[in-house]
Amino acid sequence: MLCVDREKMDEQKIYQEFIAAEAILKGHFILSSGLHSDTYLQCARVLMDAKRAEKLCGELARKLREKITSEIDMVISPAMGGVVVGYEMGRQLGVPAIFCERVDGSFALRRGFEIPLGARILLVEDVVTTGKSSLETVHCITQHGGKVVAEASLIDRSCGAHGLPFPLVSLLTLEVPAYNADALPEHLANIPGVKPGSRWLK
After folding, report:
1. Which side of the chain, N or C, has fewer Cβ within a 10 Å radius?
2. pLDDT per residue as tens digits for the range 11-49
């Protein structure tokens, strides 16, 4: 793994990086999980600045090294949200990084990507909410002979309810309420929802 010495960032400094990048949006959003929220985390805005992406992913790699003892052979991310953070994490850790993408609604490997049999995989996403896309990615990885040993994400907004069968290491843990469509609070019910997530892209 690569190891770059830099000042350790606390959660307040990390949060301010998201604020500075205008990556925390307010409104009525329909998340890729199908849940509704008044807050959306547009991590693509944080990652559009390569120096900021390097700094944040460097801190995430530091946290990962502190908490995960297993060796990592490869980074795999789900497209689209996890692609940039996945490639930067691969660079930080000194391992190959690839991504899976949806084909007929399910994640698959394309573009000649392969997973060596028995490879120890770090799954990387930008945001974890319910863990649904993570588990879909795990299914794709195991079908191709890989084994997920941990997940890393910029943001964990699952409130501990992701149900992942391996450790999740995140830069920030944010408790942002999310609601089912039939149980919206008044401040969301009164405005139309938008679908900003990549799962809705055609």
Report:
1. C
2. 889 989 999 999 988 899 998 778 898 988 888 999 999
Q: Does 47 fall in a domain?
A: yes
Structural domains of the chain, count: 1
User: Is-cis flag, bond preceding 48, omega within 30?
Assistant: no
Q: Give long-range contacts, CB 8 A cutoff, 24+ apart: 12-18.
A: 14/56, 14/59, 14/171, 14/172, 15/172, 17/46, 17/52, 17/55, 17/56, 18/46, 18/172
Q: Is residue 43 packed enough to be buried (19+ CB in 10 Å), middle (13-18) or exposed (0-12)?
A: buried
17 within some domain: yes
Sign (positive or negative) of CA dihedral 57, 62, 68, 69 = positive
Distance in angstroms (rounded) separating the CA atoms of residues 42 and 196: 8
Give the domain CATH number at 196: 3.40.50.2020
Q: For residue range 131-151, what is the model confidence (pLDDT) as tens digits?
A: 888 999 999 999 999 999 999
Global confidence as pTM: 0.82
